[in-house]
Each structure stands twice: as C-alpha cells, then as structure tokens.
C-alpha cells in the first residue's frame, strides 16, 4: 500500500470515575501498527497498565522478527504481547499497584495483516459491506476474563493470533467493550460504511455508545485501507 492508511481514534471517559482505556497507532513505509487496551476497573493502576501495553506494542520490530523466521507476522505479535505483559509487570513494581489490562492489536504490512488479542477488547473487519468480528472474547463460563496482561496469579496472557490478507477498501475497527457491548453489529457496520473518514467514524462510534447508555470508558480506533472496494460487491452483504 503506497498511500497512507486513514486512521482515526476516539476515547472517552464516559460515566466512569477515570479513564482506563488507551489507544495508539503508528505507520510508515513498512506498514501500520494499531492497538487498544482496556484496564480492568477493579484493579488500581489499570490505566497505567493499559498505557504501558499500548506503548510497548507500538514500538516492537514486527517486520524484523518476521524476516528472521518464516516471513509470518505471528511470531512477532506473540513476542510483542509477551513484552507488553513484561512491561505491565514493570509498571506494577515501580508504581506499586496491581493494574491489569486487555489488549487488541493490528499489524498491517503490505498485503498481509495480523491480529492479536488477550481479553475482551475486539478487532473487526468490514469488507465489501460485511462486518466480521475477528476476535473471540476470552471469558470463562462465569463471564470472567480468562486472559489479560499483568496478572501475577497465573492468568493466561497468551494472545490468539490470526493472519489474513488485506484488500483495498477494507475497514478495521479496534474497540473496547464500552463500545461494542453497547452497539449492535448492525450499528457498528452502519457507521463504518457511511463513507466518513476514520476520525469521524471513530468519534461517531464512541458518541453512539455513550448515547446508548454505556457506563464504561469507550474507545474506538478505525483504520481505512487505501483504495475502493469493487463496485460489484460493495453493496453486497
């Protein structure tokens, strides 16, 4: 992709006492990295845990890792999440808190993309009018998170990783549960397909979630891949 990605993000504290979500992205000639994290509300310092996780994965050398092995992005994403888990622990030690966080991560390099997540922050892809949830929430039978970053009690931090292709016109959404638990997939898709630029779409998603009654922090990060979907399939779905 020679043209830059259109990226926008919005994060609002909402009705929570303070903001525990974090989001960020970076892009250059080699591709794009985007991430969102949601600090667990019952743990002191979870805002710092979320910030540390995003900061770490944005700076990881994914393409160097891929070149050193089989060209796959999978190993790089797994390593990046492991480093983020380590840095969250470091933040706990220096800050003397027990902050934990979820993480959702997208890496796009050329015609390839890879998604990793731990917890219940999600990654969606809109392609040719169809919205697909690419991640599955890590929750047990009691709806308690079964994976997160920063736990000292043995909670699994291993991410699920999915590799896929990238096509012109694809739209990616990374969101925290304050957004996607307040809006239906149809509502998410409606905002992402209305043609607005990524920043406008991200803000619309957060505003819609708050208007729908979300009581959580709300974060949405939208990535539009340069180019147009073929006219013959754009209206399908």
Q: Which residue ranges are poorly predicted, with pLDDT under 50 across at least 5 consecutive positions?
A: 231-237
Strands in their spatial order, largest beta sheet: 1-10-9-6-7
**What is the rounded Rg?**
17 Å
Structural class: alpha+beta
Strand content: 25-35%
Q: Number of DSSP strands?
A: 10
Order of helices and strands: EEEHHHEEEEEEHHHEH
Main sheet makeup:
5 strands, antiparallel
Mean pLDDT: 91
Secondary structure: helix percent: 25-40%
* Count of DSSP H/I helices: 7
First-to-last CA distance: 25 Å
**Could you say which overall geometry the principal axes of the C-alpha atoms support?**
globular
Describe this structure in words.
It contains seven helices and ten strands. The protein has 237 residues and is of the alpha+beta class. Strands 1-10-9-6-7 form a five-stranded antiparallel β-sheet. Helix 2 (62-68) crosses helix 3. The protein is globular, with a radius of gyration of 17 Å.
């Amino acid at each position: 992709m020679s043209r830059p990605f259109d990226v926008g993000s919005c994060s609002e504290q909402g009705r929570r006492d303070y903001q525990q979500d974090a989001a960020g992205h970076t892009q250059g000639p080699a591709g794009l990295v985007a991430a969102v994290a949601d600090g667990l509300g019952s743990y002191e310092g979870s805002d710092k845990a979320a910030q540390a996780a995003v900061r770490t994965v944005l700076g990881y050398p994914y393409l160097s890792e891929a070149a050193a092995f089989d060209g796959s992005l999978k190993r790089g994403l797994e390593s990046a999440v492991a480093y983020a888990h380590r840095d969250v622990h470091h933040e706990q030690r220096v800050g003397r808190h027990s902050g934990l966080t979820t993480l959702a991560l997208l890496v796009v390099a050329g015609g390839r993309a890879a998604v990793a997540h731990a917890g219940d922050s999600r990654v969606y892809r809109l392609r040719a009018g169809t919205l697909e949830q690419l991640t599955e929430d890590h929750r047990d039978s009691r709806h308690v998170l079964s994976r997160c970053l920063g736990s000292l009690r043995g909670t699994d931090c291993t991410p699920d990783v999915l590799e896929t292709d990238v096509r012109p016109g694809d739209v990616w959404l990374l969101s925290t549960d304050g957004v996607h638990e307040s809006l239906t997939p149809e509502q998410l898709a409606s905002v992402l397909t209305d043609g607005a630029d990524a920043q406008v779409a991200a803000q619309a998603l957060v505003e819609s979630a708050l208007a729908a009654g979300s009581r959580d922090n709300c974060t949405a990060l939208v990535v539009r891949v340069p180019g147009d979907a073929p006219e013959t399939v754009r209206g399908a779905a």
